């Protein structure tokens, strides 16, 4: 397997991949904010939440659902700012993953990444970050 990348390019490709994976895991994990509500520990992120309150209409009370899950719909995300954060963070993770996978393919395929492609990928990576 020939590569058109220098040693610095190969290091960049692997570090890009590790950072993209860490960003995606952070995006999907619901542990951005930790706290307590109704004497139960709760946590949530932009995409998922754990131990959240739900209105029980039959008993006219609020009960805690002690499990992790996604929001039921995009509109169920608590605020407009939180929705914007979800979209921007998701797009950033997608861009980082795209550049990282392209860079890893450049480690295995010769003439895939030229100097210009590397600069464009760096710009996309900057935008994703």
TrEMBL record:
InterPro entries: LHFPL (IPR019372). Its main location: membrane. Keywords: Membrane, Transmembrane, Transmembrane helix. The chain crosses the membrane at residues 12-34, 84-105. It holds the Pfam family L_HMGIC_fpl. It comes from the Eukaryota. The keyword Membrane applies. This is LHPL6 protein. It comes from Nyctiprogne leucopyga. The gene is Lhfpl6.
